[in-house]
Design brief:
Shape: rod-shaped
Number of helices: 5
Strand order of the largest sheet: 2-1-4-3
Helix content: over 70%
Strand content: 5-15%
Length: 246
């Protein structure tokens, strides 16, 4: 393939711009904020599940407390009713009086037991409510941390995309200076090797960093200036410049 030396040198500009574009794409994929957002999202999901579980436990305890308090009220009401009956003097039979007094005493004991149950449930519910509050606070904290990371990510992406756009604009200008057949070869090699062209500097290919043999350097010296050369080692287009050492 033949191409003017200036057109070949433009491949180096193109390769540099493509390298910049690749670095920007890599930076876009590996922003530290992306890993942080993922980590915080996992923490948020875990905490959200824990909040639901804690709220369910607190709700169950609230219903359990309401039932226990209702049982206390029922026993208390029955004891008060029996006490009023006893105080009214309506019961005169010694046997009935003894039975009524025994029932009242039993109801008072039952009321005391139930009130202890209520207190125990209240303590458990208080602990459950406190756990819900703590978990919600942690959930809000994680959400805020994730939102801050998302803001930093978005700002970084705007900067990267702006630079990528400018790089593409410069690339379009450089592409306009390169013949279609040479550009086609460059693009094919870029797809295969990541870099389509490299400078020959000081007798060394800057693509694979391999030093060329004396025989190879002599061959290159003898080649026409418009001949498109390839590195025998990495197969990239080898661009000659005043720094090539020829």
């Amino acid at each position: 393939m033949k191409a003017a030396p200036d057109a070949q040198k433009r491949l180096l500009d193109l390769a540099e711009l493509d390298s910049v574009a690749d670095r920007l794409a890599h930076r876009r994929r590996t922003l530290p904020e992306l890993a942080e957002i993922e980590e915080q999202s996992k923490r948020y999901a875990k905490l959200a599940t824990e909040v639901i579980e804690a709220e369910t436990e607190a709700g169950d305890l609230a219903r359990e407390q309401a039932k226990a308090e209702s049982d206390v009220d029922t026993v208390r009401a029955r004891a008060e009713r029996d006490q009023k009956r006893l105080d009214s003097g309506a019961v005169t039979s010694p046997k009935d009086l003894a039975s009524l007094q025994s029932e009242i005493a039993s109801l008072h004991r039952r009321q005391g037991d139930l009130e202890e149950v209520v207190l125990e449930i209240m303590e458990r519910r208080e602990a459950a409510d406190s756990k819900v509050t703590d978990l919600r606070a942690k959930l809000d904290e994680v959400a805020a941390t994730r939102a801050a990371a998302e803001d930093r990510r978005d700002a970084a992406l705007v900067e990267i995309d702006k630079e990528a756009g400018e790089t593409q604009d410069r690339r379009a200008t450089v592409v306009g200076d390169i013949p279609a057949d040479l550009l086609g070869l460059y693009e094919k090699l870029k797809e295969q090797y990541g870099v389509g062209a490299a400078m020959l500097r000081g007798g060394r290919c800057q693509g694979c960093k391999v030093a060329l043999s004396i025989a190879e350097m002599n061959r290159i010296k003898a080649a026409p200036h418009d001949e498109v050369l390839r590195c025998d080692e990495c197969r990239r287009i080898l661009v000659r410049t005043p720094e090539s050492g020829l």
